[in-house]
Amino acid sequence: MSTYTSDLLRLLEERGYIHQITDPAGLDALAAKQVIPGYIGFDATAPSLHIGSLVQIMMLRRLQQAGHKPIVVMGGGTTKVGDPSGKDESRKMLTNEDIDANIAGIRKVFERLLAFGDGPTDAVMVNNDEWLSKLGYIELLRDVGPHFTINRMLTFDSVKLRLEREQPLTFLEFNYMILQAYDFRELAQRYACRLQMGGSDQWGNIVNGMELGRRMDGTELFGLTTPLLTTADGSKMGKTAAGAVWLNEEQLPSYDFWQYWRNVDDRDVGRFLRLFTDIPLTKIERLESLEGAEINSAKAILANEVTKLVRGEEAAALAERTAAETFSGGGAGEDLPSLSVGAEGMRIGAALTELGFTASNGEAKRKLAEGAVKLDGETISDPGYLVSLAEGTEAKLSLGKKKHAILRP
Q1: Dihedral (C-alpha) 349, 353, 357, 362: value to the nearest 10 degrees?
Q2: Which pLDDT tens digit goes with each residue over 99-122?
Q3: Is 308 annotated as a binding residue?
Q4: Binding residue per annotation — 385?
Q5: pTM for the full model?
Q6: Which domains does the chain have, with CATH numbers?
Q7: 17 assigned to a ligand binding site
């Protein structure tokens, strides 16, 4: 039985989003009384976010579902600095044009998952470059600097990790936590924002922002973090052997996105249905109790629902149909990933690696030797096999039972 009275914290607790809250009773009371504008920041280091960010995006969706106002903060300013949290090395510097293009790409997924507008609970997207780039350096030092001590900043994990490993932490990156804290204070002034949410690795940065707002303006602010999201086998969410699972179609075909969710570990099904879909909890309890081969139907529902939310109904339907045709009928569904082998042809091992089916040519060689590779249904074991196709023809390349692609000239 939930101890919370507000719809917001009850919803977040039931679905498994809560790791830490700075003042649970205070936030619960405020959420029961008024609309809370709450924010999460996303740096614009690539033209798409990957599924490691999806739990944060869904938390903004839950905030809106519970009658509150989501603020999506795009880190146009902080991206120029680089968040050292969890990083062993500095990020490469991006131009303003790169950052603007990345923000345009990232916006697409938020438009699917949140309702934007001018109403009290409508989502807004803002760019912290608006205020950070206008900050004078002396002004920042005088107004904000006195509220931070080097002693405290050196205790943050993002700083300690680099120093312990004797890896350089630039003065530029050292300032990131100050800028993120300033964001919270600025959002409190501009949008009456009272809540910052984020992953558990952001706890220190969030607390910094709350304290800065309290010291500079006397505003009571709150912080909430989600648990570190790992899969049942202990690996970090959002990474696979073939690379990141991107949210945007341009970076990852919808069929591959759908397949990621269809192939999750049985033990993750219930948790992922709670976090990443709007399916009612009573139905999720039934689905996660399925055993053996029946759990696969729950995984297909998970894949369909997440793909619908992130990519749209059409993409989900096409991915499911492609999977059915590929696995049941032995055919080649139209949404399978494809690769051009060129007029000269391509070695089959190189094709496997190019598609991301194998991480290296060495792994491709091993898979071929194991008899795991088929071309149009025939097993190929020779790593030197040249795939050469006549104009207008195509071939289906398969690795095991789950990875399939179309090869074209």
Answers
A1: 60
A2: 999 999 999 999 999 999 999 999
A3: no
A4: no
A5: 0.78
A6: 7-226 (3.40.50.620), 253-327 (1.10.240.10), 338-408 (3.10.290.10)
A7: no
Share of the chain above pLDDT 70, in %: 90
Please give the full DSSP string across 350-409, using - where no structure is assigned.
HHHHHTTSSSSHHHHHHHHHTT-EEETTEE---TT-EE---TT--EEEEETTTEEEEEE-
Beta-bridge partners for 387 = 346
- Distance between CA atoms of residues 25 and 220, nearest Å: 13
Which parts of 194-333 fold into alpha helices (H)?
A: 203-217, 254-262, 269-276, 281-288, 295-311, 313-327
Measured at the CA of 47, the angle between CA 41 and CA 51, to 5 degrees, comes to 65
Alpha-carbon distance of 240 to 243, in angstroms, equals 5
Any residues with CB less than 8 A from the CB of 240 and at least 6 apart, and which? Answer: 260
d(CA 136, CA 154): 25
Q: End-to-end alpha-carbon separation of the chain, Å? A: 60
Query: Is residue 191 annotated as involved in ligand binding?
Result: no
Amino acid, single-letter form, for residue 125 = M
> Tokens 């690996």 appear where?
235
